[in-house]
């Protein structure tokens, strides 16, 4: 799929004057949106897909069901929905835990992605709802308090989402394991995509790891850079990482 040629698009992502070709024809852009108006605007600018969530000031949570329905039914491009409960029983105990994985420059920790059974039950119910209204995919991530990918919880959520593809989100960026081992875990689980800033404050800061993850994945999973990407730095980031998909609130 290539970008939609809409007014102003060529100015934001110009073709290479030397060969007349455009690197943008080979990539997809997912725009992170929290309202129908934002999603429609992103679609009109040439977004290839949407990640729908709410409350980005706190890292994003599962949007209201009426918003999910409205956006999915209105847009003509795929809508992936973030599944992350805003009131997590497990996170109430974060202050009592000193083992959460922290990464310098990243505003969240492993405990932001730790869920109790009641949380997981709600996440399954939300996933099942997304499937009934025609969502294109699910975005989710679960860790243990010490930052290990919670494979048991992920298997349950992936099974609930089937046959929809699952994107493991930036919980990866505060995971405590070796990034390449964690990547292999996600591939084994059956995740279709990984959204990551390369375990750094921004995707540009983490471009070195992102590039290596793209190479290591070798097409078995899509490594999608996200965080701090905009029309100005996207071309140079793409030249460095060679990723096939990109994610951001300022894209396209």
What do we call the CATH homologous superfamily? Copper homeostasis (CutC) domain
Question: Quick one: CATH class?
Answer: Alpha Beta
* Quaternary organization: single chain
Helix content: 25-40%
Q: What is the number of strand segments?
A: 8
Classify the beta-strand content into a percent band: 5-15%
Helical/strand content category: alpha/beta
Instruction: Determine Rg (CA atoms, Å).
Output: 18 Å
Distance between the termini: 15 Å
How is the largest sheet built, in terms of strand order? 7-6-5-4-3-2-1-8
SSE order, one letter for each helix or strand? HEHEHEHEHEHEHEHE
Number of domains: 1
Label the overall shape: globular
Q: Report on the biggest sheet.
A: 8 strands, parallel
Would you tell me which CATH topology applies? TIM Barrel
Known CATH architecture: Alpha-Beta Barrel
Number of helix segments? 8
Low-confidence stretches: 1-8, 17-21, 95-101
What average pLDDT do the residues reach?
88
Description:
With 252 residues, the protein is α/β, with parallel strands linked by helices. The chain has one domain: Copper homeostasis (CutC) domain (TIM Barrel, Alpha-Beta Barrel). 33% of the residues lie in helices and 13% in strands. The chain is built from eight helices and eight strands, in the order αβαβαβαβαβαβαβαβ. The protein has helices at 9-12, 36-45, 65-74, 117-133, 151-161, 179-189, 207-217, 234-241, and strands at residues 28-33, 49-52, 79-82, 137-140, 166-168, 193-196, 222-225, 245-248. Strands 7-6-5-4-3-2-1-8 form an eight-stranded parallel sheet, with helices on one face. Helix 6 links the parallel strand 5 and strand 6 (193-196). Helix 3 (65-74) packs parallel to helix 4. The chain is globular. Mean pLDDT is 88; it is low at 1-8, 17-21 and 95-101.
């Amino acid at each position: 799929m290539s970008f939609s040629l809409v007014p102003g698009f060529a100015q934001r992502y110009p073709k290479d004057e030397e060969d007349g070709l455009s690197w943008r024809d080979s990539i997809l852009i997912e725009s992170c949106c929290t309202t129908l108006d934002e999603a429609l605007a992103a679609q009109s600018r040439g977004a290839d897909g949407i990640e729908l969530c709410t409350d980005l000031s706190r890292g994003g949570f599962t949007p209201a069901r009426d918003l999910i329905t409205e956006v999915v039914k209105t847009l003509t491009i795929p809508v992936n929905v973030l599944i992350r409960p805003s009131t997590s029983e497990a996170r109430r105990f974060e202050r009592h835990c000193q083992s959460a994985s922290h990464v310098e420059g990243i505003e969240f920790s492993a405990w932001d992605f730790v869920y109790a059974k009641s949380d997981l039950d709600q996440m399954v119910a939300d996933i099942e709802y997304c499937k009934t209204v025609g969502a294109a995919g699910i975005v989710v991530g679960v860790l243990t308090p010490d930052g290990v990918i919670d494979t048991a919880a992920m298997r349950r959520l992936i099974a609930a989402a089937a046959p929809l593809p699952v994107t493991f989100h930036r919980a990866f960026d505060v995971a405590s394991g070796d990034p390449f081992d964690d990547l292999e875990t996600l591939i084994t689980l059956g995740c279709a995509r990984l959204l990551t800033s390369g375990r750094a404050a921004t995707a540009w800061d983490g471009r070195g790891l992102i590039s290596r993850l793209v190479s290591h994945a070798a097409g078995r999973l899509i490594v999608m850079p996200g965080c701090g990407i905009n029309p100005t730095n996207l071309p140079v980031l793409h030249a460095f990482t060679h990723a096939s998909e990109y994610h951001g609130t300022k894209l396209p």
